[in-house]
Amino acid sequence: MMTTNRSSENCHTFAYTESEIQRILTEAELNLEEQKELCFIKDPAKDLFNLQRKEVSLLLHQSTLIRYVKAKQIPRGLRLDITPNLCTDDPILMQRWHEITNKCSLDLMVLMIERAHCKLTDLKQQINLQKADLTTKVGIEETERLMKRHNESLDKLRQTILARKVTKFTRDEEDYAKERVYTWRQDRTRQRSEGGPQRIGLSGQRRPRTSWRERRNPAVYTSSEEEVCSGVQQYPFLGARTEGGDVVRPKQRTNSRTPIDRDHYPRRDRQPPRLIPLDARYIHTRGLRHSLHNHCWAERRFPYILLVCIVSAL
Hints:
Blueprint: H1 2-10, H2 18-39, H3 44-70, H4 91-138, H5 140-177, H6 184-193, H7 212-215, H8 223-231, H9 280-285, H10 288-295, H11 302-313
Helix pairs in contact: 3-4, 3-5, 4-5
């Protein structure tokens, strides 16, 4: 009886009722709505500008895809970069393979054009509603002033996007002209290894890469390379000279992988093992097995003890 009462006193429980749950949720939702009104204050002008930016970007993307489809060309980002895993040396298979992937890419482009048209229709409706809401809140004059400022920013955005898309379209036209539609990655990799520009079809100068012979240590040049290097005249960087008129020569870089000559550590020669003579009385009194176990196996002197046993037996 005492045990039962003690266990019931120790095992306390608690549970919410349905009315308490509803009360707590209602209070929390009221506080959440108040915080939303304070933290997420909407700016009609900013919302309108964001919608206009989306419209400009989507409209230019749609017009670019239309131009690609009319020219029967595919941009690099929409080319299906998949290759067959057998018979890759068959020209008929590769031709049919590329024709099938071209048709798939063109269908995907037409699908994006169709859905972009629907998205633009929704954006125009949202822009008109947002513009009417802005006019109601700030007035017609302020709305016209904001729209003028928005148009200036949108024109800059339009020019930036258009310039980038024209550059990519010219690059893709060059791929078709040079017949590297599906091999442009390999061509770019080969051009990088040869020290050319890193991107095909885009402007920009790249510093040519040095060959592996130029990066080697001068101490490991061959005789033919030494003759070539000796015949080249070395000029100072920007005409740098000392007060005495001597040319300031740069320090030669050493190869960090060249092994360093080190003195050999002194090696201590191992001395031959010391032979411990075996007392003959252990053999006669306690037996050969016991004496070998105590005196021979610990010092590994079995050949010497065997010789002693043979001599003593004789």
